[in-house]
Amino acid sequence: MPPKRKAPSSGYGSVKASKDSAASTPGPATPQSIDSDDDFSGEEASEHEAENIENAVNKFSIEKYQARRAGISGRDSASHHFGNNDFSYLALKPDHDNRPLWIDPQKGRIILESFSPLAGHAQDFLTTVAEPLSRPTFLHEYSLTPHSLYAAVSVGLDPKDIINVLDRLSKIPIPDNIREFITKCTQSYGKVKLVLKNTKHFVESSDPEMLQRLLKDEVIGPLRIQGTEGITTESAPKMGGLVIPGTKNAAGVQQATDQRAGDRPQDGENAHQEDILRTLTEEDDDDDDADAVHAFEIADTGVESVQKRCLELGLPVLEEYDFRNDTANANLEIDLKPAAQIRSYQEKSLSKMFGNGRAKSGIIVLPCGAGKTLVGITAACTIKKGVIVLCTSSMSVVQWRQEFLKWSNIDPADIAVFTSDHKEKFTRNTGIIVSTYSMVTQTRSRSYDAGKMMEFLQNREWGLMILDEVHVVPANIFRKVTSSIKTHSKLGLTATLLREDDKIRDLNFLIGPKLYEANWMELAEQGHIAKVQCAEVWCPMTTEFYSEYLRESSRKRALLYIMNPRKFQACQFLIDYHEKRGDKIIVFSDNVYALHAYAQKLNKAFIFGGTAQQERLRILENFQHNENINTLFLSKIGDTSLDLPEATCLIQISSHYGSRRQEAQRLGRILRAKRRNDEGFNAFFYSLVSKDTQEMYYSSKRQAFLVDQGYAFKVITHLQGIENLPGLAFSTPAERRELLQNVMIQNEDWDEKISDDLFHRNDKGGGGFGPAKKKPAARRTAGSLSELAGGQDMAYIEQNKSKNKELKKKKGESNPFFKKLARDQQKRKQALE
Ligand SMILES: Nc1ncnc2c1ncn2[C@@H]1O[C@H](COP(=O)(O)OP(=O)(O)OP(=O)(O)O)[C@@H](O)[C@H]1O
């Protein structure tokens, strides 16, 4: 029996609230549920913060609603089936049909009817105030959490606005406890800002009483600069005059609202909806108080103490950078090239960052391939001060620099890279540095040059720090980065604000709140990312493999379900089918033994941690441009940073347990497919799973995130015509026994331990077969494995000559196109040097 599928995840903010939530709470921690690279340590501040949130959420769980519900339970013979989800006691508004939202008063969940004519407006609003949990075709689920409300406050909404709009869109009157929850969360969050104006730090708030309270505080009070004039008052900053480059106008949110005018219900279609819409778009100008801000100045050295103390007081500080009034830091000459037009969702995300004309620190979440790089570059072009970009790998560093040169008019001399191979500085008084997290945080055994470079980074003030792929970097690394490099604003970029250990919320206070999260399906509909058909292919285990599977320990079990001959056949069949359709296919395997075995047997090229850099590039070039090389086997080093827009089909044969993040990252490899706008084009993502094994459990867990984004995984139990595939591997019992013998003698852990990506190796040696860090002395081949098993005469060894070697041989015969490619690469390298 396959394991039961889990219901869409619930937000961490809602978990503890009620008894039935236990069902949606993740089970006990198992080794598989934690990504190995998600190491955290020293999280005192965030633990404290987490406690606050839990308390708030517990308060949010309301006995009175429980009691009211108790009153109605047993009312009819069906209500008990709905348990805690029986909301029939809630009174509907008379015109509820015209309103798109349902609100669950117990957990703060909001359900949006995405087919409503008002859905567009409602979605814009909900992504600002709530956490999107699940967005399939017809009903979207959001959750109000302390963090989502914190983010809403940070983009300038106040509790009154939030409650008003929610009320207009809701089918039921807003429950009192929801009002209370919104007010409670927002009254402390976002009230205090730390603003750097003209090199002076100010603690700012629109509430003068809040500042009085802080001045009386024993830690913060003494940090006020003596001799400055107490609390000053001035009008609140406005967007006015600020133009985000690459946009037609920079009215930000307002423009996004205008674009929605197309959603407006047609004349006579529904007068009620027209009314609701009108009230939604009406300007709220009755609040004059919000137009003034009050501030006091603190010493530069007191910044960290103020932040820490405010967090302790439950008043996390929002960071804002008034870059237009920063006369102390030199202006950077940078603008987007005239041809660069940012897309509406990119503009919308930036309008949240620059909503009031200042730069807010925070995180922007866009799907893989949706253009996060251009968002970062546009932010840099808006702020026009020194920028530091931090990436996860040295290849990303090169790509970021190239993208800056492609999209902006930055002088190449003003953008430098800092990696182990290149330690450059810009020559003028300001510029851009692109580096990796490891370069700026590693403290031991720094070379002299690297030490000098770090001094250079630490001795200046940066206008903007762009933090790429924020979800993969441990919190302690962020702490090191932000404490050692002075920057006025931080922009985190990611595709999946998701960690298996749920520590993602730490980022809220280390970088800033989530400013924007795009809807994957919407972007696919608009053609910005590819549409993907997802399928899980169930492969029955052969009897001999299954008998061993039941007997074995967990590590060997994994190898057995990965090497299941039926899975191999399914992979062979799918490759054949998609190659014939003209697809370019990537096959992913975390397990390097399987990677090697599959690729060798099917005579396909492969890349893993031990593949030499030259060989990797050669294989990738062939995959991109050689019409005879249409399939590439990749280990997990290809999960990220791989830009292969030719790829249109993914097949996953082995993966990292239940990692939702890896599943999303892998899907991301085909979202940028070049052919995505061809009529009727679909990319394909297959996950091959051995039936009745643990792999099925992991597989459903892995899919949870993508299912929440609206992807539907079809289950394929039989691949039509597989039996008739000429040359189908392992079709005789003898072949399968041979394979089983090979698998059974494997005693090593074949999971690749990598600490860098596809383009950057740890070992300096050439392509050993095994974990990347191992010495490449012994190159194990399929031949020697087969010999060990006493099966020298089997098909397995006959195909010992790998496709990789074949490609290597062809190196000298490179056609003019490859020669040109090599020349271009050489030029790029020289440009970097
Ligand atoms: N506004 C735009 N106009 C034209 N092309 C764009 C625009 N935005 C992004 N692109 C293109 O889309 C592709 C994907 O962009 P990018 O590499 O920044 O995606 P990403 O979100 O960083 O993906 P990943 O998460 O996989 O790294 C690039 O080729 C980029 O040039």
UniProtKB/TrEMBL annotation:
Cellular component GO terms, alphabetical: nucleotide-excision repair factor 3 complex; transcription factor TFIIH holo complex; transcription preinitiation complex
InterPro entries recorded: ATP-dep_DNA_Helicase, ERCC3_RAD25_C, Helicase/UvrB_N, Helicase_ATP-bd, Helicase_C-like, P-loop_NTPase, XPB/Ssl2, XPB/Ssl2_N
Pfam families: ERCC3_RAD25_C, Helicase_C_3, ResIII
Catalytic activity line of the entry: Couples ATP hydrolysis with the unwinding of duplex DNA by translocating in the 3'-5' direction; ATP + H2O = ADP + phosphate + H(+)
Comp. bias intervals (Acidic residues): 35-44
Compositionally biased intervals (Basic and acidic residues): 260-271, 821-833
Disordered, as annotated region: 1-51, 250-271, 761-833
Keyword set includes Methyltransferase: no
Family in the record: Belongs to the helicase family. RAD25/XPB subfamily.
Protein name in UniProt: DNA 3'-5' helicase
Species: Coleophoma crateriformis
